[in-house]
Amino acid sequence: MTRLFSTMLVRTSPNPGPIEQSMAKKLQTLLPTFLSIDNDSQKHAHHAGVRGASNVTESHFNIEIHSDNFKGKNLPLRHRMVYKLLEDELKVKGVHALQLKTKTPEEIAKQ
């Protein structure tokens, strides 16, 4: 599902679950110009780390976010910013893995 919020393009899975919706809302606090969240959980359903987990439908996500809030910050710091926002999803709600692509709009324009 793709939605445009003023200057922010937000793309999520076709039928985002409650965890994905919560993540999208929290990540919007970074004022992204682009945010894409893809639920990759189905690709990992049979992995050993997921067996016996209470959350297997919203456990793995691929996130791409472009934000001016990343200016002047190195990659580990950018990722820590995202992890901090999604702390509840990671520690309580059973999100097992995030694959992150964090860029500034200027970095994207240079590509």
List key phrases describing it:
BolA-like_sf, 111 residues, BolA, 25% strand, GMP Synthetase, Chain A, domain 3, globular, Bola-like protein, alpha/beta
Low-confidence stretches: 2-6
Query: What is the CA-atom radius of gyration, in angstroms?
Result: 14 Å
Strand order of the largest sheet: 1-2-3-4-5
The CATH superfamily of the domain at 59-111 is identified as BolA-like
What's the level 1 CATH class of the domain at 59-111? Alpha Beta
Number of strands: 5
β-strand percent reads 25-35%
Quick check: average pLDDT? 84
What is the CATH architecture assignment of the domain at 59-111? 2-Layer Sandwich
Return the structural class. Answer: alpha/beta
Query: What is the CATH topology classification name of the domain at 59-111?
Result: GMP Synthetase, Chain A, domain 3
Order of helices and strands: EEHEEHHEH
Helix content: 25-40%
Termini separation: 25 Å
Number of helices: 4
The coarse silhouette is globular
Can you summarize the main beta sheet?
A: 5 strands, mixed
Family: Belongs to the BolA/IbaG family.
Protein name: Bola-like protein
